[in-house]
Amino acid sequence: MDSKEYISSGILESYILGHASPEEAGILECVMKNNAEVKAAYEEAQKTFELLATAQAVTPPNDLKSKIWDKIQLEQKVEDEKPVIPLNSVEPKLETQQIGQEIRVEKNKSWKNFAVAATVLFLVSIVANLYWMSNQNEMKNELAVLKSDKQSQNLAMQNLEQKLKITSNPNMLKIVLAGVEKHPESNAVVYWDKTSKDVYLTANSLPKAPEGMQYQLWAIADGKPVSAGMYTDDKDAKIALANIPNAQAFAITLEKEGGSEIPTMENMYVMGGV
Amino acid sequence: MIRKISTIKTNYSEEELIVLLRQKNEAGFHHLYDNYSGALYGVILRIVQSKEYTEEIIQDVFVKIWNSIHQYDALKGRFYTWMINIARNTAIDYLKSKSFQNQLKNQPLPDFVYENAELTTTNNSDFIGFNKVLESLESDKQELIDLAYYQGFTQSEISEKLNMPLGTVKTKMRNALLKLKDLLKDYQ
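The joint structure predicted for all components is written out below.
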């Protein structure tokens, strides 16, 4: 079910009017957290019901406001007096109301209120349990996804750290290999450790090597190409391709998988002098 | 975002109002009453169809709002909607309560019939406007809103009552609301 179908199913109206089942409500609340479209439709639906109420507003009698405020203050007073006379918390309110018959009604009402409150609490706990149960699986799945996300992020981070270690090492000689005539867009960078003589290569801007082919790095020492190792994505700026004691230039050619004895010159992509 | 509350201010944002109510501030009560009493009164009047009971119920509703403002959760819905639902639920509960059913026996005619005439002295144009709004809805949509909104029928109860599949009730309710939204544009 996509968002639009879900919205047009009438669930929003049912939820706003308090008629959605706990399961339906739980699902909707979860969906709204993650889906802006459903959330927006929920806001809109609420506003419509609010507009309906505004449109049908009727001015209440003039004395109603002060009646309500008196009632609130009376309750407040009862609340405040509670700690002093905890056993008779209902009484002070009743004394002010005088009429005997009303006292019984008031008492009944307050017991009814307690019963209603208890029932509501009970229902709320059932609802909470149902919601919790129906969400547990979902939560587990989300947790698993989060965990694997975290793992892949950690890996990516480690990867970056290793690359940064190579590229920011001041002992590295950086040699930029520029695209040759046939491949002007290509480029690559060789990092050559001045002490250990290890050669690293970052070449992820080269086009992906076709099936069965691989990029091979060559060191040109005194005019003669010497293989400086095969390039794979996972080695990029991370794992040394070869140890080259002496070179005046580097070049990359596309070769059959596993590499060639001598470079196929027409398949050269990039080249650069030290 | 909560703007700074100055002491002489009489018009508050919804967020400010909630803060004031949580502090049990009297200015909060005035603002609450001045801005929402008409709408809540109207909702209750529509449900119980008697001014006398409406006056009784609305007092409970305001006391409930005042006392349970801490339970209001902005993440779950809008404040105005929350209050409307308190008014609806209190009024519908009142209708369903036994004492009211008994009182009703002594009062064969709902006095809503002549309520309209009385209302002309107060909020005449709004009230009539609302009636027109509902009238311009198709009768089945009108009935759905009446049953669900004013009489508190659940969708499955409506489905049973109208002998209509539950799925149809749900989508019809959605369509009714969309139509209503369109019709209520002018009140925004």
